[in-house]
């Protein structure tokens, strides 16, 4: 009786798939997405003065414009851009979280910094509450970008 011998590389292929899927569990998987979102968030909040819902954050009072903004050479626009010293917008960062990475502040530790200064996180939360602005979420465009970028990263991970 004749026999047919079948050979397969299924084990190799399956092992590669399992290895590639394991990349998705890496806590650093979302870090590039966070890093790429930071300039978008910075531009929205600190240049255009918009919250995540597409609303203007607010306007500065004439007194604040005249004294604080003028003294800091920040221009005459009354649009709130949550920026005076640039510390806040320069402290956005991709920060480790319990489940991977998120977007936060490098000086957000546990409140005030060691020199007694108010942290960037506290400043942002203060402005958000005072101006009733959604400053702690992604906008629709930022969310769409993140989803698209995550899909690209998943495709790269499983097809490599």
Note the gap between the termini. Answer: 43 Å
* Biggest sheet overview: 2 strands, antiparallel
Q: Can you count the beta strands?
A: 2
Domain unit count: 1
| SSE pattern | HHHHEEHH
Shape descriptor reads: elongated
Structural class designation: mainly alpha
Report the average pLDDT across residues.
89
Q: What is the radius of gyration? A: 23 Å
Q: Can you give a write-up of this model?
A:
With 160 residues, this protein is mainly α. The protein has one domain. The protein has six helices and two strands. A two-stranded antiparallel sheet has the order 1-2. It is elongated, with a radius of gyration of 23 Å. 15% of the residues are buried. About 3% of the residues have low confidence.
How would you summarize what this structure contains?
With 160 residues, the protein is mainly alpha-helical. It contains six helices and two strands.
How are the SSEs ordered, and which strands pair?
Elements: H1 10-23, H2 31-46, H3 62-71, H4 87-90, E1 92-97, E2 100-105, H5 120-131, H6 140-159
Antiparallel strand pairs: 1-2
Helix pairs in contact: 2-6
Record keyword descriptors for this entry.
160 residues, two-stranded antiparallel sheet
């Amino acid at each position: 009786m004749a026999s047919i011998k079948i050979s397969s590389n299924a084990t190799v292929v399956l092992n590669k798939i399992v290895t590639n899927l394991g990349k998705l569990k890496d806590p650093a998987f979302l870090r590039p997405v966070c890093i790429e979102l930071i300039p978008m968030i910075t531009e929205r909040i600190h240049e255009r003065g918009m919250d995540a819902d597409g609303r203007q954050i607010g306007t500065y009072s004439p007194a604040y414009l005249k004294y604080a903004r003028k003294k800091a050479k920040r221009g005459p626009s009354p649009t709130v851009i949550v920026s005076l010293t640039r510390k806040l917008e320069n402290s956005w960062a991709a920060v480790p979280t319990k489940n991977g990475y998120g977007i936060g502040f490098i000086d957000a530790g546990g409140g005030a910094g060691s020199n007694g200064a108010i942290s960037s996180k506290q400043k942002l939360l203060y402005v958000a509450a005072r101006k009733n602005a959604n400053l702690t979420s992604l906008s629709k465009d930022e969310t769409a970008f993140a989803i698209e970028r995550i899909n690209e990263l998943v495709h790269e991970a499983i097809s490599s």
